[in-house]
């Protein structure tokens, strides 16, 4: 069993920054491919960012490339999503995900966190 708990969400003005944290327990994040997804009201869950099991390769949705950075702190067993230059369209519930043998997708993920709300005001 693996548990993922997101934190760091909140209300921020457009152009501001937030750092989301995904604290894992039960399993070691260095053994998993980790990812971030988001879901806005009335929309489907969408991929945001991911990194492979080694933490050396990263992947980003075009909508966040250059603004968001995914990273891992093995000592803290935590994955982060640094979000800069936030836009109102970034408003969503953000979910952390883990998958054993491949990059997580919205239909192929082993573990999901409960989500944290990010609201960006204009």
Please characterize this protein's 3D structure.
With about 120 residues, the chain is mainly β. Helices cover about 0% and strands about 50% of the residues. The strands form two sheets. Strands 2, 4, 5, 6, 9, 10 and 11 form a seven-stranded mixed β-sheet that branches. The protein has a four-stranded antiparallel β-sheet with strand order 1-3-8-7, with no helix packed on it.
Give the gist of this structure.
By secondary structure, this protein is an all-beta fold. The chain has strands at residues 3-7, 10-13, 18-25, 33-39, 46-51, 58-60, 68-73, 78-83, 92-99, 111-112, 116-121.
List the helices and strands and how they pair.
Elements: E1 3-7, E2 10-13, E3 18-25, E4 33-39, E5 46-51, E6 58-60, E7 68-73, E8 78-83, E9 92-99, E10 111-112, E11 116-121
Parallel strand pairs: 2-11
Antiparallel strand pairs: 1-3, 3-8, 4-5, 4-9, 5-6, 7-8, 9-10, 9-11
Q: What fraction of the residues are assigned to beta strands by DSSP? A: over 45%
**Count of strand segments:** 11
- What's the alpha carbon Rg, rounded to whole Å? 13 Å
Roughly what is the average pLDDT, rounded to an integer? 96
In N-to-C order, the SSE pattern is EEEEEEEEEEE
| End-to-end gap | 40 Å
Overall structural class, as computed from helix and strand content, comes to mainly beta
As a percent range, the share of helical residues equals under 10%
Main sheet makeup: 7 strands, mixed
Shape by Cα distribution: globular
Our count of helices gives: 0
Unreliable segments (pLDDT under 50, ≥5 consecutive)? none
